[in-house]
Design goal:
By secondary structure, this protein is of the alpha/beta class. It contains 8 helices and 10 strands. It has one domain: Rossmann fold (3-Layer(aba) Sandwich). The longest helix has 18 residues. InterPro entries: SAM-dependent_MTases_sf (IPR029063).
């Protein structure tokens, strides 16, 4: 079911970009009717509430795409992007994925049987928010105070407590969350996010009392830069080898930075090999 949802999201995005004439800094779409993508009605309503409560979106309008009525949300993340790069240990600037993409990643996580989602470098909290909406325990860890303030406003306006926390993920005590079957989303594209991954993975894998090996999700790239130091496994091969991680699933979905590109962003689900 989730594979069909992923395919439908990518198809809608491709058609949307063929017709889109908007000049906004950021823009994304969501269907207005749940049966369009076989999404739970309440959960779809809450996805729209996230966008409506999020100040990065300044306006919206409806568009019919492939016989699917969608709402197009437009806005600007420039100020939050600038804020996000001012911290010494902020290795990854704020670049959001689509809300629909975050939701699809959460459903994929549920399929793996995890109980908690921890979004490291959570930005405006969309992955942690979608996780809570979908019935999982979730936490958003973000170093930038302005983004955490935005997360708290969204949480307050929607009534969805996805536990936004202002913290340096490289120093955070993950054992304090009392996790049992967690999945960790590590923000940042290859190379940019590698330093974050190298700092947080050892802290997580050293935790006691986990019922299962933790799952790590990396944001990869299908197209490697010529000067890339690691062209293997979507740019994360060296990290995966260092921590003995095996790929268990790859899901490709639209993000802010691939909205005008023919190939979207791969999200690589990995787990420590026994």
């Amino acid at each position: 079911m989730n594979e069909a949802l992923v395919e439908a999201i990518v198809t809608l995005k491709t058609e949307f970009m063929k017709r889109n004439e908007g000049g906004s800094h950021i823009q994304e779409i969501m269907p207005t009717l749940p049966e369009s993508l076989s999404i739970d009605e309440h959960e779809l309503e809450m996805l729209h509430k996230f966008a409506e409560s999020n100040s990065i979106y300044s306006d919206s309008y409806e568009m019919n795409i492939l016989d699917t009525v969608c709402k197009v949300y437009q806005g600007d993340v420039s100020n939050y992007w600038l804020d996000s790069i001012k911290h010494d240990t902020s290795y990854t600037p704020f670049y959001p994925i689509w809300i629909l993409s975050a939701y699809a990643l959460v459903l994929e996580s549920k399929n793996l049987g995890v109980k908690q989602i921890i979004d490291i470098g959570s930005g405006d909290g969309r992955i942690a928010y979608c996780a809570k909406v979908a019935g999982l325990e979730s936490y958003g860890i973000e170093i930038d105070e302005n983004l955490v303030s935005l997360e708290n406003k969204i949480s307050s306006n929607t009534g969805v407590d996805f536990h936004p926390m202002i913290a340096d993920a490289t120093q955070f005590d993950y054992a304090s969350l009392e996790l049992s079957q967690p999945i960790f989303f590590i923000s940042g594209l290859p190379e940019v996010g590698e330093m974050l991954a190298n700092n947080v993975i050892p802290r997580i894998t050293s935790m006691q009392n986990l019922k299962t090996n933790p799952v790590f999700v990396f944001t990869g790239s299908h197209i490697m830069r010529k000067d890339s130091s690691d062209k293997s496994k979507w740019g994360w091969g060296k990290v995966m080898e260092r921590y003995n991680l095996e790929v268990i699933k790859t899901v490709t979905l639209p993000t802010y930075w691939t909205v005008d590109q023919p190939v979207d962003t791969p999200f690589i689900f990995t787990r420590t090999m026994i």
